[in-house]
Amino acid sequence: SQQGEEDPQALSIQEGENATMNCSYKTSINNLQWYRQNSGRGLVHLILIRSNEREKHSGRLRVTLDTSKKSSSLLITASRAADTASYFCATDAKGGSTLGRLYFGRGTQLTVWP
Amino acid sequence: GAVVSQHPSWVICKSGTSVKIECRSLDFQATTMFWYRQFPKQSLMLMATSNEGSKATYEQGVEKDKFLINHASLTLSTLTVTSAHPEDSSFYICSALSTGPYEQYFGPGTRLTVT
Fold first, then answer.
1. Chain B touched by A106 (CB under 8 Å)
2. B109 closest CA partner among B41, B51, B36
3. Which of A57, B26, B32, B60 is the most exposed place for a label (fewest CB within 10 A)?
4. Chain-centre distance of CA A24, in angstroms?
5. Cα–chain-centroid distance for residue B25?
């Protein structure tokens, strides 16, 4: 079964506001990644955070990781209508038998209104 | 960055026919590729892990005789949906794992519609 669970499942905000999405997982990980997917399209890799990191920034994105709570958050600041998409977290499994295997969460559908 | 392509990007087929989807790593070699299926408004579900030169490893509940995977070279894996039915209609996404460093790159997906 999937490791990651995101909340909220759907988020609707106005342009300029910040959007926060959360992800929880079940087992120990080496790293956690966030992806974006526009409707009907492939995945776009946003950011990877390793298990020994607590926070990472990339442009308007800020990711945090709390391994004690097995959770991560993705913050998009000053959102734009173009940020409208589904966002997924994905984890590997520390000690997993298949290198590269990822477990995806259910995703958060973000809608940013102009 | 590394690029993974999928062909076709979309396909419509009749029930009972077979459809082959290709996944290619364009500028790197991949000993491992993954095949995912995604239903509308849902997450990606791993179907199988494709290993070059050996048999694919299927996830529980995925019929290996229905979803045939062939990873014949370090840059190509194919997924064949045999005797397709409408319930097989979905978005199929592959990813390829590069070596040194290990990074995973996703293809753009293939939309399969079975009528």
1. yes
2. B36
3. B60
4. 10
5. 12
**Pick from A11, A13, A15, A3: which is nearest to A114 by CA?**
A15
Question: Can you spell out the DSSP letters for A14-53?
Answer: ETTS-EEEEEE-SS--SEEEEEEE-TTS-EEEEEEEETT-
pLDDT digits (tens, 9 = 90+) for B70-97: 998 999 999 999 999 999 999 999 999 9
Structure tokens at A100: 């590269």
Q: What is the dihedral of CA A28, B49, A22, A37, to 10 degrees?
A: 160
SS (H, E, C) chain B: CCCEEEECCEEEECCCCCEEEEEEECCCCEEEEEEEEECCCCCEEEEEEEECCCCCEECCCCCCCCEEEEEEECCEEEEEECCCCHHHCEEEEEEEEECCCCEEEECCCEEEEEC
Write out pLDDT tens, residues B12-53: 999 999 999 999 999 899 989 999 999 988 999 999 999 888
Per-residue b/e over B63-87, b at no fewer than 16 CB within 10 Å? eeeebbbebeebbbbbbebeebeee
Q: What residues of A are in contact with residue B57 (Cβ under 8 Å)?
A: 98
Which residue in B has a C-alpha nearest to residue A4's C-alpha?
B43
The answer to whether B62 contacts chain A (CB < 8 Å) is no
CB B86 within 8 A of CB B24: no
pLDDT of residue A108: 95
